[in-house]
From TrEMBL:
The name this protein goes by in its record: Soluble hydrogenase small subunit
Positions bound to substrate: 339
Domain Aminotransferase class V: 12-330
Cofactor requirement: pyridoxal 5'-phosphate
Length: 387
């Protein structure tokens, strides 16, 4: 088998990396206690606040998005605290496990995979908590395992009305893809990861902390050392880091954030929404079915059912014939769905290419006609032309 030299990542992460970011990544390392690195931290911190639409502290951790989420939990809560966890996919399921691992009492609000969390269930549980025993609400904004986006704006409004509970939100695949106005929605803790909308390789995670979150941190008794956010906050005052950071990833981050600022938030959100619409409507034209309801599709990824064929074999065929990597289903969805990522550094050509590859493969399998492949590309063009 020939070595693949032009693999196209159409998965929810790692996502494609721009050439300018790769060049920044290849720079010779500098000392992480140097003035040059402090200037870099100052620049990236300012741009991270811009991306988060916040005046809050935004801290950078060398670790994955899971590290940022775990940090948010262990820095603000104490053993025995009661929390709500939203679960409607693989990542919501993970936060339930993390919360229980640290001895938290979990109230689970769930829905079937592919169905968004019901904000009214959160409202009901929070309103019934007359003694303010619930200390946090932990949930995933964009549930990558199913291609569903949860109604964070409404859920966060109910958390604010509770007045005691913190919001701890996994925005790993929504930040940099759709609007997450941290200050406007008064989100307390927001976690994200570098290999998603940030357009850089894996290895960094980011966490924004509100004043309310820092106040909660003063009471937290859960164990922490490397992920003790007080250390990160203190070192950030001198544009530094408490431990040795991934210096070259910070070079890449600086370049990626500059690219994002040049494109502008509204244009970034518009591009992701356009690609979501193009992909989801092409799926229907190709005689396939979406896994999630159209009203709740994530701008980052489209999950597609494969009734009558094995999704893993389909993905393998696409990779072997076109050098395009698609994501598979997780847990009980393995072999039943495949997922097309359109997050981060993805352009119109990528969408046209992946739809063509899927259509061509279905045509060879005699699942659809050549006319349907053409119609799907017409549909894609229609949505890509929209400004």
């Amino acid at each position: 088998m020939a070595i693949q030299q032009k693999l196209s990542l159409m998965i929810p992460g790692p996502t494609p990396v721009p050439e300018k970011v790769l060049q920044a990544l290849s720079k010779h390392p500098i000392g992480h206690r140097s003035k040059e690195f402090q200037d870099l931290v100052q620049s990236t911190t300012k741009n991270l606040q811009w991306l988060h639409q916040t005046q809050n502290d935004v801290l950078t951790i060398t670790g994955s998005g899971t590290a940022a989420m775990e940090a948010g939990i262990i820095n603000t809560l104490s053993r025995g605290d009661k929390v709500i966890c939203g679960e409607n996919g693989k990542f919501g399921e993970r936060w339930v496990k993390v919360a229980k691992e640290f001895g938290l009492e979990v109230i689970k609000i769930d829905s079937e995979w592919g169905i968004p969390l019901d904000p009214e269930e959160f409202r009901k549980v929070l309103e019934e908590d007359k003694h303010k025993e619930i200390k946090a609400v932990i949930l995933t904004h964009s549930e990558t395992s199913t291609g569903v986006i949860n109604d964070l704006e409404t859920i966060s409004s109910y958390i604010r009305k509770h007045n005691t509970a913190l919001s701890i939100v996994d925005c790993v695949t929504s930040l940099g893809a759709c609007n997450v106005p941290v200050d406007e929605w008064k989100l307390d803790i927001v976690a994200s990861g570098s290999q998603k909308g940030y357009m850089i390789p894996p290895g960094l995670s980011f966490i924004s902390m509100s004043q309310k979150a820092w106040e909660a941190a003063e009471k937290s008794n859960l164990p922490k050392f490397y992920l003790n956010l007080k250390s990160y906050k203190k070192s950030l005052q001198s544009n530094s880091n408490p431990y040795t950071p991934a210096v070259n990833l910070v070079f890449a981050l600086d370049e990626a954030l500059k690219m994002m600022r040049e494109e502008g938030l509204d244009n970034i959100f518009r591009r992701h929404n356009k690609h979501k619409l193009a992909m989801s409507n092409a799926v229907k034209a190709l005689n396939l079915k979406l896994f999630a309801d159209e009203k709740y599709l994530s701008p980052s990824i489209t999950a597609i059912k494969t009734e009558g064929m094995d999704a893993e074999e389909f993905r393998k065929t696409i990779k072997n014939n076109f050098d395009i990597l698609l994501a598979g289903g997780q847990d009980h969805l393995k072999g039943k769905i495949f997922r097309v990522g359109h997050l981060g550094y993805v352009n119109d050509r990528d969408i046209i290419t992946v739809v063509s590859a899927i259509g061509n493969t279905l045509l060879k399998m005699r699942k659809i006609s050549a006319q349907q492949v053409g119609e799907a590309l017409v549909v894609v063009s229609k949505y890509l032309e929209e400004k």
